[in-house]
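## retry 2 of 3
previous attempt timed out at serialization; input unchanged, resubmitting
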Amino acid sequence: MGIYLDHNATSPLRPEVREAFAAALDSFPGNPSSVHGPGRAARAALDRARERVAQALAVSEGEILFTSGGTESNNLAIWGSLVREPAASGGPLLIATATEHPSVLRPAAALAESGRALVIAPVDSQGLVDPRQLVDLALSAGGSRQGAGGNPRLLSVCAAGGETGSVQDLAAIGAALAQGPARSRPLFHTDAVQAIGRLPLRLKEWGVDLASFSAHKFGGPRGVGILFRASGVPLCPQLRGGEQELGLRPGTENVAAIVATATAVELAVAGRDELVRRARRQIGLLTELLGTRIPEARLVGPPLSTAPAGAPAEKQGDRRLANTATFVIPGVDGRILATRLDLAGLEASAGSACASGSLEPSQALLAMGFSEAEARAGLRLSTGWNTRDEDIHRAVDILWKTLAPSGARR
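## retry succeeded, writing output
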């Protein structure tokens, strides 16, 4: 592996997580639904992992479900809330922002195709929604919290954009929703896949009913997701089979990977302040160096933090993920550039990993007002737990040398 600056796509497995994974594979070979000794041991390990995750997220154990990843968690939150709702229920069933991840926007599009009403809320040039306007839309959109089919309507807002780094003010949205009439208040879901280890996690303060996470975004194993479901929130399973995960996600649980995920969550939450301080410094250095050597590169999203070196990781008003920088470089095709950088020893991305195989321009950048040409010219660099300052210097050197002969330019 060369210089790895694609942690928003996947963050390499932490050594401590690898050790926990290997130990759990050896220690818990049984099926956690079995009544014999190995099965009971596996069940105890699963229950303990759920307890650890809940403690790290400051919620109760019964509010944590394990899934196969962020995509499944988002789909379960959306379809599980809305699938039984009839097509005509007096108002839109789902309100989502224009910069949501494909695992939110594509289920939303499928809902629309099936005749269910959908509203896509706009964002500004920094990728941010206006909390008050969004809540006014949600509360005045018609219908009620309990639609004709007995299922609630849903508002879905990404906590932090993995492509743009834009951090939405979920606390303000949640507070404004709470002030509205209970009958017209939708359920509140957030795709928080990029949040663990990068943002202070205050699910109760945010007022969310549902929140999605993915282990491999913060140094955990691939193939494990987390769905927070607040107590009392109705949800319909999307798979049929066993009664695992409170009857909402049937199938034998991957105990070893879930135990490893609990370790990754604890490490990420405990190390957030240090990671954010380091990421803030590294992204600031990256932006400064690129501004000198590639001045036409334009930083996407909210401005960088103005916190001084050594300041607390959480700074009031910051609306950007500290570890994320996407640049629009005029005349460049982001996909071609990312491929050439890989050959030169720098791993980066042209945008969201789940959409990077698409030939279409970045939907997030288009929603922020960029032209189609600009939306194809994005390059995302994202740091993580193992990024060093010297990696930033080398990355800028590689990027500058790769662009110098205009090999990635159209």
